[in-house]
Amino acid sequence: MEHFDTLLAKYADFIVRVGCNVQPGQTLIIGAPLEAAPLARLCAASAFDAGARDVRVDWSDDALTRIRLEKGAEEALCDVKPYLLRSYLDYAESEGGVCVLNLLADDPEALAGLDAGKVSRVSTARRKALAPWRSYTMNDRVQWSIAAMPSAAWARKLFPGLSRDDAVEKLWQLIFDTCRVTGGDPVGAWKAHLDRLTGLRDKLNRLDLESVRFESGNGTDLTVGLADGAVWESAGSVSEKGVPFLPNIPTEEVFTAPHRDKVEGVAYGTKPYIHNGQTIRGFHVTFEKGRITAYGAEENEALLGEILDTDEGARHIGEVALVPASSPINRSGVIFCNTLFDENAACHIAFGASYPGTTRGGAGLTEEQLLARGMNQSLIHEDVMIGAEDTRITGRTRAGETVALFENGEWVL
Ligand code: ZN
Ligand code: ZN
Questions:
Q1: For the domain 4-178, what is the CATH superfamily, name and number?
Q2: Which residues surround ligand 1, an ion (CB under 5 A)?
């Protein structure tokens, strides 16, 4: 690829300055797999240039994770030592505060074939132990962002006919294209894109919708009632201290909070659902009074069941998101096998927790107050794609009017 190093440096700088928007005096905490080391180093350099006090990197390794899950005793793996939580809180509570960056270079099949129940219980134990730290990002208390780069395993899975190097280069090209880096001015390109998403968000908020209904030829007919005080959000978020940031790179969605007890109908998955390195294909879920009462999948149905049984909230949804079929990620024709990209290829719902920020004043409410508004709570938040090329979406306003939002997979608002 021409100018690869230039594009990579622009990508890193964009992630740090627009994604995390690192502020002088903050510590940037980067989570990165070993394969992402070159990108992590560029991000660290950009962060210091932006005035970061320090940069901490937590390295991970898919292969090592697999070894531990295969050979380690479940009891030991679920025993998450308190120092781990403390180490994050020490930064979060220190003077300059933190911001968080997660770099992904996933192997989509890293955990394929392992005992799905064990994998899911171990990841639940970790989530439980780190919940107070996770609330910093889940509640947008601090700036946080997630961005991806190719791993060889990921690239080879997407392009099995290519050599390792060609597959990696092709995936880099796709990431640069869909993340608007290719034109050479990602910061400017994102400004225009975010303005458009913000415009749609504002229109939706003015409609004061009570519910949205998805219909498509594959059998999906799902009515999603919205939480009390639900507000539509788009790409950009703002931290507790008023610093704007971009949580997901790339992003094409406008999303809000469903009411946990007011979802009715059936939804069919339109893209593979990757969970902990395993793939669930051809799934469907049926809702009654907001709860999933029936489900099925052509592949890995038992894993879907495990996920939905994580806790009580896992059978309800915490997010509904609108994404047009013309999204560059969808139009690339590639299934990325990575939620960060695939969720921006199609309309989706999320099993599990809602984002408090998607109800008015939600960040300042207690768990009970959020629940009273219909905001779902769970240890998980799993995006699953239900948007198709022919998806039709209508909204029903609290005044009783019906408004067309999508026709044939596209915005008509
Ligand atoms: Zn989403
Ligand atoms: Zn989501």
A1: Thermophilic metalloprotease (M29) (3.40.1830.10)
A2: 253, 255, 321
